[in-house]
Amino acid sequence: MHIVGWLFDLYPLGDRIVLWFITPEGEALRLVDAFPYRVYVGGNRDRVRREVKILEDRRWLRRTYPTQGRDLGSGEEIPVWALELNTYAHLPQLRAWLGRGEGGLEAYNCDLDVAAYYLYQKKIWPCAWYDLEYQEGQMVSLAPREGQFARDVSLPPLVTLGLGLTQDPLIPLGAGNGLAVTWEGRSLELEAGDRAGLVREVARWLSRVNPDLVLSDYGDEDIIPLLWRWSIASRVPLPLDREPGSVARKFSGGRTYFSYGRVVYQGNAAPFYGRWHVDRRNSFFFREADLMGLVQIARLGQIPLQQAARTSPGTLITSMQLARAVADNILIPWRKADPERFKSTGELLTVDKGGLTFMPPIGLFANVAELDFASMYPSIMAIHNISPETVNCRCCAEVVGEGAESGCWMPGAGGWDKRDLKPDLVPEARYRLCRKREGLVPRTLRPILELREQLKAAAREAAPELAILYQQRQTALKWMLVTCFGYLGYKNARFGRIEAHEAVTAFGRDKLLAAKEICEAKGYRVLHGLTDCVWIQQAGMTEADLQALCQEVSAATGVKLALEGIYRWIAFLPSRQNRERPVATRYFGVFADGKVKVRGLICRRRDTPPFIRRAQEALLARLATAADPAGLESIRPELEEMAAGFRQRLQEGGIHPQELVITRVLSQPLEDYRVDTPTALAMRQLHQAGVQIRPGEKVRYVHRERRGPKELRVQAAPFLDGLEGYDTTTYLELLERALVEVMTGVFGEAGLSTENAISRLSAAKSGPVGGRNSPWRPRRKGG
Amino acid sequence: MGRTVLPYSHAWEEERERWQKFRRALRREDQLHLDRLFESARLHLQAGVYAANPWPLESMLMAMLLEHEKALCLLKERLAELEGKQ
What we know:
The complex is a heterodimer of chains A (783) and B (86).
Chain A: E1 2-13, E2 16-22, E3 28-34, E4 38-42, H1 45-57, E5 61-70, E6 77-85, H2 91-99, E7 106-108, H3 114-122, E8 129-135, E9 138-144, E10 160-165, E11 179-183, E12 186-189, H4 195-209, E13 213-216, H5 219-234, E14 255-259, E15 262-266, E16 276-279, H6 284-301, H7 305-310, H8 313-327, H9 345-351, E17 363-373, H10 376-384, E18 409-412, E19 415-418, H11 440-461, H12 464-488, H13 498-521, E20 525-530, E21 533-537, H14 543-557, E22 561-574, E23 582-591, E24 596-599, H15 610-624, H16 629-634, H17 636-652, E25 662-665, H18 678-688, E26 698-703, E27 714-716, H19 728-747, H20 754-766
Parallel strand pairs in A: 10-13, 13-16
Antiparallel strand pairs in A: 1-2, 1-8, 2-3, 4-6, 4-7, 5-6, 8-9, 10-11, 11-12, 14-15, 17-21, 17-22, 18-19, 20-21, 22-23, 23-24, 25-26, 26-27
Helix pairs in contact in A: 3-8, 4-5, 6-8, 6-12, 8-11, 8-12, 10-11, 10-13, 11-12, 13-14, 15-17, 15-19, 17-19
Chain B: H1 8-18, H2 20-24, H3 28-41, H4 45-51, H5 56-85
């Protein structure tokens, strides 16, 4: 039978892959396809043959045969043996055996996700249209109707059912918390007498609506695992899946880990089979880019959508690289650890830098242009062929040119001369870059970069309702590109080597400086620079001038530089601790089109209470209407009034507790807190109420009393109903900090209202002197 | 992606610590000037980063001198202006 279908879901079952398609009419179709998982082993020929014989006796394998595969490092074909597993369940056993290293073999392709491996092997991707041929539920053939990197994508009709909790998620389901479903725009709370009843209700909805997508809040962590357990205990069937075969579910609980200075908690995953379950709260990509974003990453990452939804950007880009490798018959190494080569101190000092970060002058500036390099690091990887296997490759060792500097800009007779930019030597580090092979990483990145540009262009031209879909997909791609760089540098990442990372940053610094030099040669003053963008200024500069400038820099560096916008005015703020000291990432300003850009302010912080955030944003919005510094000065009295208004509202009381909630991420378990910080006190309250919170999860609370018994200092979030008062003094201080941040940024020290200016002067006279500036404190107002 | 080499801004703090004894034995008013001198080195952090001098103090001193040079130029101009007016 022939049909057109959209690849919706796929998963391994036994020894074959189950695929679900949706027809253009919205019908779901289930097919199976045989897919043996293939592991490769290499090494000494006789040894390999001996070990394969031993393995065959174990009966894990259906078939073994000799073949060839490409080695990643050298790019050459080497002889290996292919081992086809009987069922997917045998993979862990084979891995354990290989892991013990008894055979002394090199193992490849051992730890790929089964469904993803199927997609890589077949060279197909989810969330796309196919011409299908099938017979009695078996897939016969499959041909894509559209390209993987197609600019425009279309979806079949999908039925969505929403599922959420009725109360704060910390309150357990069935013990104070209930469920609500959303369908066709209407929300309905489920009525049930007991747990079995609740399961029955959910089952009813699933059967009735037969959704393709269940979109939940806290489904992964709280709702589904509980419902599943209750369903088994009370023997009430719960048709989460369309899969008719029995599905084993195991909810192992989440884990906490530490990454980049932050404690992160990753919860359970509760995917469905034959249906999508996406938990908004557990999906980074859904939050960033909505459903279209998920479709985009599933397609490009060649991972089933539900996995893509729950994964981090790094896993996606790795999957793309794996797909590329499998398509090119490259053997994927297992448990790789490719450590750094030895370096001298001098070499280490030269390469171990990051991006260049300038310190801007403090104050308000008018008519400033911001120029940004587009996807600088991924672009550098793509155009200079930087990949773990291409940096200091063995194949080009004899072909190195001598002496030449990797290229620099020198003022010459006719303007700027690009002295011979040798494309295969890295600036400063002088690493060699392969000229014979295109690296795996650049090959993977190039189509993503191109597609992103296409989507951005499409978003600019399309009508608003369509533009947002292009924007969502473009945002998803941005995150994939951003993480690619991080993985490049990690020795344990599948495709990572620190020298590649060093090469990228070296080119990055060089290109930023090249941009700076070209701007300065054309008479611009460079106010600020940050890894891949510059802020410049010149009297009488026009947009046309700037566009021409961007063209020139793009041509010189090979990476596209674009005009982000011209600020009517921009304020660079100093350090919070020291008013005289500039910092790189605290500024705010308004573009010519009225759009505000804010970095490093209190309203951008995750822990700021909504009331304070809105106060600061209100000031910023009003400031944004001013066209120039004179305009700013003229609205100053109005701003002071707005500020006074916010202060007054706080003092009057009657603000809803939700508006004052502070959100903190727990960094350690309760026992490890030595000081009774507000966060620890809130956590203790939750503990006493029987609520468990793990490090990496969020705690939300309101400040209640400044002094007095510790139990009353804060009130944790789920118990805010009926909270009468709050700690006015603390919130006034927070508000003041937020207001002062904005006012002094724009008006300087004069931005402090007279009353506050007086208290600052008196503090300055009596406070400590020296490098440690006394932070300005507002006079306490009642409270 | 952690760095192996100490970031230059941390090196700045370490240098400042190294000079604490020197600072302590200075008169109060001189301490203020010294503090400003150290702060002025922060204005050109990116140059210190890029140069990656094995002795960070050299980059810091150069930055301090640079700021002095700028101040002197400015003062010379102002002086010439004022003298011209007389």
